[in-house]
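User: We ran a pulldown and think these components assemble together. Before we commit to crystallization trials, I'd like a predicted model of the whole complex to look at. Sequences follow.
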Amino acid sequence: MTNSTMTCAAFDEVLPDYLEGTLDGSLRSAVEGHLRECVRCTGLVRDLRGIEAEAAKLPDLAPSRDLWQGIETRIAAPVIPLAARPERSRRLAPTWMGIAAAALIVATAGITYTLTARSFRGSNPAVAMGPAIVTQPNAGDSSTPSEVGIGTEAPQQSSQPSPTAPRTTNVNRAATEPQSGGVAQLVRQEIPSEAVYSKEIAALQHIVNDRRTQLDSSTVAIIERNLRIIDVAIEQSKAALAKDPASRLLSDQLTRALDKKVELLRRAAMLPVNT
Amino acid sequence: MAGMGATARSNVVRAPMGDSADVALAAAGDRQAFERLYRTHANRVFTLCARMSGSRSRGEELTQDVFVRTWEKLPQFRGESAFSTWLHRLAVNVVLNARKIEGKHASRTEQSDVEDERRDEMSRAPLHIERMDLAQAISGLPEGARKVFVLHDIEGYKHEEIAEMMGITSGGSKAQLHRARLLLREALQR
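Assistant: Here's a predicted model for the assembly, 465 residues in total across the polymer chains.
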């Protein structure tokens, strides 16, 4: 096509680098020599430069609607601040959530059985009813699925509000005075934070329900399945507590299960669209 | 971009005055301040999301995702760069990650061989580029080529930055860019 030593095919090979301005001197000279003689390649360079120039001048676009309301709904979820943790642990794989929920059930059922059996065997009728106790969830147990319901940690009795749970009031330590029977037993009244949890859960559930159509159906199915598992754990914990209201462990298990439900709903509420 | 005399807008610092106060307030949980940030940057973020995704409706969804993510991440913003730069980079990551999550297949034309589609263009008239046509043609680009084109030619990122963000090589970014430009030329000539 031209009298230059460079063919159009060779020109095409080096065109990206030529456009980037990264060709060395001799090759660039050959390209420029080819361009002086070749209409086809001159037109190609002109068009590509024109496309780049026009692309850079494209104006900003505007959404067809105000997106703020949707954003605000999602960020206004009654989010309970979580303790800072590594980014990689922030997104739970559905498999892990399922495993965690299953572990929660197993642990809860085991503890329920053990403590219920113990209460039937040797409950002390002389136990005095003391002030309420509410065990607070551990600050670090809020979102790592492997920690859920393992039940190996000693329950905490800190009066400091946990960053992972709804702030509660009326948090008191149990009476620990020795009783006439020689048994110091912690007595639990109804968990005062349950109402707080219920409110949080209801609000989050509402948001998740509204977002149902924005999420992938398989994601929704997994979330619902895990919610059912957690609900079973909650119900079992409540039933066990009804039989043994003094149990700190059961109280703690219930709190953990409620925590898990809040967190799962929160994550569902914050999921990006189509996940 | 030296060779092209690039005029792509800079992805760095388009920070309106007063951003820093609202950023601090929003990071502390002030939703009104965050709404002001949204109002300031919404179009810029939406433009990026729409162009990278090739769809205005998808761009709107992604824009919401970007600002929700921004709200979550804002407490971690240390002010080492302008907020607008940080937000822009976060938006790019949200769009790229969204695509990974969706796991959709590359578009039909992804594997096409551009070289085979070239024709003798010696007799063609100079390309007349209308912006509407160009915008439409960009949205019709294959996924990878479109993202590289938007990031490089529109948003002004360097190949090295694009390569890092997209998990490809710098050479791959250059190849995708060139392919995108050729495909756009082809589309605009129809």
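Residues 28 and 75 of chain B are 7 Å apart (CA to CA). That may be worth checking against your pulldown data before setting up trials.

User: Thanks, that helps.
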